[in-house]
Amino acid sequence: MVPRPSRPTVQDVARRAGVGVGTVSRVLNDLPNVAEATKRRVQTAIDELGYRRNSAASALRRGTGITIGLLVDDLADPFYSLVHRAVEDAALENDWALLALSTAGDGERARRQIAGLASRGVDGLLVMLPEGSREAEVLHGVEAGTAVVYLDRPPVSADADTVLADNRAGARLGVEHLIARGHRRIGCLADRAGIWTSRERVEGYREALRAAGIRPDGALVHSRVGPHAEAGGVIERMLRLPDPPTALFTANNRVTAAALRALAAAGIRLDMVGFDDLELADLLDPPLTVVEQDAERLGATAALRLQQRLAGDRGPATHDVVVPRLLVRTR
């Protein structure tokens, strides 16, 4: 049997036209930001190769043919699952196909994931940069003109569209609440110092102390707090200090959960404020006061900015800030 000639693909068109897959996708979907000369080269390549769109794939994309990617640390994290839900709602409303991936905070993994999305002609990206990563490395291979919005963490050097929470302001709210309750020795448990959000929250903690005339004590600040045993050891060491803390500020939901487990195991109660809410936090005894980020607003705002870029907005980079609120719980 004579083998059938293989059907030309988008990659074949891109090679023939001397452009990236993303450019071919934009031409096929009649999207903006493609020069007329480039459009003509792509159309010539399509005609010469006899390329025809895959109707099944087009149907899956529900008419517009736009595909976006969302990259966060961990889709299983309650905070990022809410971000994902907001982006998913926007994708449904705009007839976009959405590919959501967890980077596990690994820059190389993120680079490979984004390279895979780029090779499939993704039209836009919502990216949370992993710890210690630079956008030029992670987005290597993404074609110029691809819409990118940075979410939760800013790019290192590029002036690009960002949607961030005001982490410093949120941390100040939480620590000011503890100070107003009479505490002056307040411990701070945070994630790794290499994470931008963690650094911002620790700095907000220090700013609140200084504003109240309290000198920050390095012995009360601990980063890289994670598993239960680690949190327990940190809290135990702080409580053995000559002047131990009477309250704790915990800088994300997982650190808060680890601290609560450690305190419960030790039979110790400390006043606490956590950054990010926890499911069932209102049922704790006492209920947990938290700094609540609006994760859904963060995701929705980023998706809206991406939509504007995909529609042809070529204006300067925008920097949206979502302000957290203090959710005081009492019983």
UniProtKB/TrEMBL annotation:
Q: Which UniProt keywords apply?
A: DNA-binding, Transcription, Transcription regulation
Annotated ranges, domain HTH lacI-type: 8-62
GO molecular function annotation? DNA-binding transcription factor activity; transcription cis-regulatory region binding
Q: Which Pfam families match?
A: LacI, Peripla_BP_3
Question: Which Gene3D superfamilies does the protein's record reference?
Answer: 3.40.50.2300, lambda repressor-like DNA-binding domains
Is Transcription set as a keyword in this record? yes
Keyword Transcription regulation applies:
yes
Q: What is this protein called?
A: HTH lacI-type domain-containing protein
Q: Which organism is it from?
A: Cnuibacter physcomitrellae
What does UniProt list as this organism's lineage?
Bacteria, Bacillati, Actinomycetota, Actinomycetes, Micrococcales
